[in-house]
Specification:
Elements lengths: L19 E5 L5 E6 L5 H13 L8 E6 L16 E5 L17 E3 L4 E5 L2 H6 L1 H16 L1
Parallel strand pairs: 2-3, 2-4, 4-6
Antiparallel strand pairs: 1-3, 5-6
Length: 143
């Protein structure tokens, strides 16, 4: 039986500051990544409540990376070492990660762990998703 090799080409997007904004703590302990199109005032309030519930300060402990819809980016562009990353409404491939994942599972990497979830808008409106997110946040940060 002969093995066949398939060439795979991965596009590495250029770092374009016009396609995202990073706000919050300069050296935040937690990176939160959201889609700009699904992140309004209600979502920010819910996010701040979640951050407070897991014993972080929304102003001094987190950095938010707000991406324009569908914009790919490579996490390694940012010269910060985050230990924890929460991703809402963005897929890992959009972040330059070619991995298999299941939403609401905690992904462990060499230097950080990541939780990939639906958008905060969707979580706000579906009680089961809100409960699942809370269970995962407790597992990551409170146990």
């Amino acid at each position: 039986m002969a093995l066949s090799l398939i060439d795979q080409v991965f596009h590495i997007p250029e770092l374009n500051p016009e396609t995202f904004s990073m706000i919050g703590a300069e050296e935040g302990k937690l990176l939160v990544i959201v889609d700009e199109g699904a992140f309004g005032t209600d979502e920010e309030t819910m996010l701040n409540n979640m951050i407070t519930a897991i014993k972080f300060d929304p102003k001094s402990d987190i950095s938010k990376l707000i991406l324009k819809r569908g914009q790919p980016i490579i996490l390694s562009y940012f010269q910060r070492d985050f230990k924890n990353i929460l991703v809402f409404g963005i897929t890992p491939d959009q972040l330059g990660l070619n991995i298999e994942f299941k939403s609401y599972d905690i992904l462990h990497f060499e230097k950080y762990r990541m939780l990939v979830c639906d958008s905060i808008t969707e979580i706000r409106t579906v009680v089961q998703k809100k409960q699942l997110l809370w269970a995962r946040l407790q597992e990551m940060f409170l146990k």
